[in-house]
Design brief:
By secondary structure, this protein is an alpha/beta fold. It is built from 8 helices and 35 strands. The strands form 9 sheets. Strands 23-24-25-26-27-30-32-33 form an 8-stranded parallel barrel, surrounded by 4 helices. It has a 6-stranded antiparallel β-sheet with strand order 3-2-4-10-7-8, with no helix packed on it. Strands 1-12-5-9 form a 4-stranded antiparallel β-sheet, with no helix packed on it. α3 crosses α4, α5 runs parallel beside α6 and α7 runs parallel beside α8. It is globular, with a radius of gyration of 25 Å. It starts with a helix and ends with a helix. 49% of the residues are buried. Bound molecules: alpha-D-glucopyranuronic acid (GCU). The site of alpha-D-glucopyranuronic acid (GCU) has 9 residues, from loops. Its EC number is 3.2.1.31.
Amino acid sequence: MRKLLALLALVTAPAIAADDLRPPLLLTGQRADVQDLSGRWTYSKDYYRTGLTDINGWVAKSRMQRHRDVDIAAEEAKPGPGFFEFDLDRGPGMQIPGAWNAAEPELRWYNGLIWFQRRFDVPAPKAGTRSFLRFEGVNYRAYVYLNGKEVGRHEGGFTPFVLEVTEALRAQGNRLVVGVDSKHDAQSIPGEITDWDLYGGITRPVKLIQTPATFIDDATLRLTDAGRLAGSLQLNGAQAANAQVSVQIEGLNLKAQATTDAKGEARFDIAAPAALKRWSPESPQLYAVRFASGADAVNERMGFRTLAVKGADILLNGKLVTLRGVSIHEEELGSNPARRMTESAARALLTEVKTGLNGNYVRLSHYPHNETMLRVADELGLIVWSEIPVYWTVDWDNPAVLLKARRQQAETIYRDRNRAALALWSVGNETPVADNRTRFHAALAATVRELDPSRLISAALLVEREGYTVKIADPLLPHLDVMAVNTYAGWYGNDTLQDLAKVRWDLPTDKPLVISEFGADALAGHHDLGAEPKKWSEEFQAAYYRATLKMLAGIPNLRGLSPWVLKDFKSPRREHPVFQNGWNRKGLISETGQRKQAFDVMAEHYKNQAR
Ligand code: GCU
């Protein structure tokens, strides 16, 4: 059936095969020669995008071309008629990475193009090296220039991209200029309307990476169901073909060699040592893995485990697993978040899940999160659901939009496929059932199946109500390994909390079910001690959680929960002047980390479940 469906999806799939979606450069893995360009960058607003094009689509006026490699103050000191209407050297500055909406009051609601500049030197450039800029996330479109030369562009706010700058780089006084356009539109992924904040800007780190002339662009390794360590290594450069490569796992006394083929790719297929300890939430064993070839080496910290669905069960290392989790937006704790997800910020959130909630799982919604979250989840032992922002509605009939979504899916898979914690790829959230929408998601699912057959495919689906019976009639189901649905009965709609006891779930039971969202708003510290607490109070939210957990308990193939949401988060859709003020208050904790009563309800539920 699955092969038939994959065939069906392929029949409707777009022209570009999954293998052709591999970004030309990846530079995944931890390597030595990296210069982090985080820090103070200057910026120049460009509300009418005059730095890109002039009126009527004419070429931008040179006096407005932000990317020009020119010392404007020095030019102005000379005689002559020339002048400029920008100067990134003397412009205001802000801390990068981080969204501009949180950086300056005047930029709080700015949604458009801003140019950023970073000057930098290159310590002791070595002859024969190649140089790359790796952007880990720029929301939403990026136009990149180095020393006045355009070096590349990218669309998509949540996935990395790598640009080679070997020719454009100089030893001193490099001028990196990045145009960032946060504007989304009917053809972007996600579309224009979401339930989260703008967060425009260079929101994740930018790094200068220098490599030997032939380098390791990507390397993977995973534990197969047959008990072998299988993987690949891709070289890039003139000497990529027919080259010796190796993989070494400290602590397992394992070292294996391989030879690359004509395309520079080598494959590993090694019997897993008997001493190998598998990764699990209870025992998140990570190993230092070193891939090497010639003068280059890449280090990874990796866990090894197997994952499968068998009937209505999810199996991790062959054992049943129930997902005890919560949904999370990429937004750090604090009253003015800038989507600056540092390791300590990620650890603060994920520790609340692991030890606060007694959780073993996180739904990283609604888009690929900062790679740091995945690495901390690997370390803490939290299974991860990763999601592509095909959210609510996109332009289903537009092949170019489908290609964008498939590219984002591929960019995420190539970035995260070495993370043991990552178990589920979600191809969307709450999209209304229609033929064009199902074809779109099915093509995405087929792309996932081709690029990463080792993980499970899901999507957060909408349910239908017939009185008190909840049903699901979604033709996407056969393409999914794990069924997931969002439900808000008792918060949205007319159900009282007492009504939830009447709800009957009439869903398929032939595959695992995750309730990917349920939740209710509460303002932390707002209480209602009455017999029937009103909405917005912590007491109502706690009662909603107790009633919902009771309603869900009877579902026979329920294998996971990720209530909406760990932490209150910023959203322009939430403007109640007493309870919201621009925050979605469904968090189990407030934006500053204050636990609400519902947090304890969930923690108790998971503690009992984990016994
Ligand atoms: C939806 C959606 C979330 C949203 C939530 C809410 O299900 O998936 O992104 O924030 O409901 O209404 O709070």
